[in-house]
Fold each of these.
Amino acid sequence: MLTIKVKPAPRLRAAFARWAVTQDPKVDTCSHVEFCVPPKLFTLVPEELLIGSFVDGHRYRSPLDDEQNAAVAAAEERVAVPGQPLPEVNPAAHPPDSTPLAPASDGQIPNGDGQNPKKGREEAARPAKSRTRRAPAAGSSRRKATPEEAS
């Protein structure tokens, strides 16, 4: 029989179990933390019991969460105008212990060391080093020791 494995969030496990035993037929457990829910009953599971759970190994994404995230993203959307500085970023977008970057001078993007702007391009233009082994020089090969020399 086809079932959907639901692993509720630990804080909702008891509430999910209460819902599962009230169904007809009762929902079985797959393991000590997972429930095997028939597809017909899965559509009847209350949304608040599924938020934070894993369904068939994937995190459950609530349609309500998607609507809230879309509304927040639309409210924070900013438009940059070519030739003008970028709009200010909402301070809540960064953690409190983050360090802001220094602005680039003359509109140039600084390279990694901040010393020589051409250095990065020169290194990128060089061919990659070969990883092949060099052949030993003529006459430098090791010879095997004879039994007389070993004693």
Note: The chain has a mean pLDDT of 76.
Amino acid sequence: MKNKIISSLIIIVLTALCVYGFINSYVLNDTLTALQSEIQQLKEKNSSLQSALRISDKKNLLQRQVQEQKLDSLKLEHRLDSLVSCVSKFKNDSLLFEIKRISPSKFHKISKTNKSIKYEDLHFRDILEKKDESAWRVNDSIFIVRLATESLDTIKNYTPRKGELAFSVYKYHGFVEPLNSFLFAGSYCDYWDLFVINKATGKRTPLDHHIVISQDQKTLLSYIWDGWTFYSGGFKLYDISDGNLNIDVEHRIPEYHSEKLGMYWSLSDVYIIDKDNLVFKIQFYLMKSRWSGSCYANLTIKR
């Protein structure tokens, strides 16, 4: 009897323990599930926080970049102002030249309304050679133009002999009506230029790298710019009279002047307002730092 009672007690205790363990297991599972849910929520919050931090970092980075760009822009504007001031006034005999900066918007407005006839960058662009009834190529080396007198003028390339560096190659760029002339581009060993042959007289007039004719067809500008501003050149202004060119103003920039300034500068993309007023992009190249830049400017000639 006593053994039965003990056995019953043992069974009761074991049963109680099992029930207690089951209850604890259920509670622990609920607790674990709740903890896992909280951990997941914390992970999501952390991910959102990290995402917000990344967005904030990006915004801060963009703000810093914008500020740096503004500072760089201010530094650039200051540098360009300083460079333009170096060449803002110069004399040539009795003439006074003045250069002042203008805004890009003003330049672009002029470029849309001004009808200057531009023969610029002919050496830098792959342009098909022109041909017409009065001008034709015989072969790779010889080009013929027929003058008003019916006589023929020959433009012939020069191919160097063995050991020579010199050469000349010519390309026809069409007939220029305001000049009554044939326009040719010449490429040589260390230089290139343009020249025109007057149809009426056969006279050849050498010009610089680029030419621009005013919209009233009374003025021609011939200027030097090598495309990189590795040297300063200058410019010439001609009066156009019955297709003939008569030089009006010539300004050449001596090498010693460029060395004194420590920079080269040149005109480019020019529009002629009148014979004493040019609008253009001014190009700079600093010798020591090898920095190059440009801005828009207006050149006036005071006679």
Note: The chain is about 35% helix and 40% strand.
Amino acid sequence: MAKITGSREYMANLTLSYSEVEKVMTAQQVIYEKGLVKLESNSMITALGPVATVLGLAFVTSTPAGIAAGVAGIISGLVGSAKAELDSLVKNGYWELGKTRDFLKNNPKYTHVELKLPFIEYTLDAKDKIRFITGKGVLVRVKTSTGWIPFE
């Protein structure tokens, strides 16, 4: 089993369409329910298959099996309040992504958003990385049929 060898929190930009926001939300929910609440690696791998196109973009690790192995390593390495904090952060990240999805749904003139999002990233065995969105992003700009415009 992988061992946590480092962690950090930071902000990074992601550019997402409505469909990609929904896929990232699904992935984060699956990771939470089939990883953090009760580790079910095989179920997690199966459930992440349909949203695999966004895994590398949002979570750094790009395969369902890699995500499942990373989550298993994280779960085995966290105890007490650290595990409870990660639980809360992942749920909050999912919740905040829902607001972005709703924004895009209610503003169909925007095809994509660029968000500056908060992440927590774990390094496993000093080489593999996996990260999770942990909270509210800042809308940097939006894309319309004519191009990108700063969001104010």
Note: The longest strand covers residues 4-17.
